[in-house]
Amino acid sequence: MSRRIQGIGMTSRRTRERMISRLREQGIYNSKVLAAMADTPRHIFVDEALESRAYEDTALPIGHNQTISQPYIVAKMTELLLEKGPLHKVLEIGTGCGYQTAILAKLVDQLYSVERIAPLMKKARDTLWELNIKTVGFKHSDGGWGWPEHAPYDGILAAAAPAEIPEALLEQMAIGGVMVIPVGLEGMQELHRITRTEHGFEDEVIERVSFVPFLSGVSQ
Ligand code: SAH
User: What is the pLDDT of residue 11?
Assistant: First the structure.
């Protein structure tokens, strides 16, 4: 393992374990989610200048006006996604730095991740490679289209908030599938969990959240 991955001081395994205790206090209970987060060095997903803050419960800048989601929200969304049973095929919208991607990759059979900003996607792919996570499918595209070639998905997780859930994402859910997605305009977003049943869609509102906006089109 490289020295950077291993970490020291504020980036050490002990610091990460303190983050896990905090997540437990915040109500995260899924032991598989907590174990995946205990195992994944979060500091290597951010710029070296920010490494020492990687385990604080805050969002941090990752360039291109985007942020790495705070640990609590990564844990919460993953837990909500997995709550109804193990997932085979999952689509993530908004790879960003790839931290959420790494956690999901450890917990589901097959993961596909879509990002609209090319350099973020490339960097995330390199970081995951460094961590020996090599099975994720990446696509540089507008996640509003989903990724129809691999549909239907048992799980969809979006890390950016649309004003309304894109129709294509609903269409690409399997029956029994679950989607965790923030919805709403800046300052008034809520996290939703949508479950597709044989008769339609169930919609649970989980809590208020703050995400970057879901934008259309791609950026090189
Ligand atoms: N979980 C990521 C979150 C990154 S922020 C992390 O922890 O790093 C959200 C990401 O969603 C950004 O990288 C942004 O570029 C991306 N995004 C926003 N709208 C998108 C869209 N329509 N399709 C694909 N990605 C999108």
Answer: 83
Considering the domain boundaries, does residue 118 fall inside one? yes
Contacts of 8 (CB under 8 A, 6+ apart): none
Residue 61, H or E segment: strand 60-63
42-69 pLDDT per residue, tens: 999 999 999 999 999 999 999 999 999 9
- Domain containing 122 equals 61-208
Q: Is 114 in the pocket of ligand 1 (CB under 6 A)?
A: yes
3-state SS assignment for residue 147:
coil
CATH number reported for the structural domain that contains residue 71 in this entry: 3.40.50.150
The verdict on the CB of residue 113 being under 6 Å from ligand 1 is no
d(CA 123, CA 217): 20
Q: Please give the distance, rounded to the nearest whole angstrom, from the Cα atom of residue 102 to the centre of ligand 1.
A: 14
Catalytic residue positions, numbered = 69
The number of domains in the chain is 1
Query: Is the beta carbon of 123 within 6 A of some atom in ligand 1?
Result: no
Q: Which two tokens stand for residue 1?
A: 């393992």
**How far is residue 114's CA from residue 187's CA, in Å, rounded to a whole number?**
25
> What's the pTM value of the predicted model, to 2 decimals?
0.97
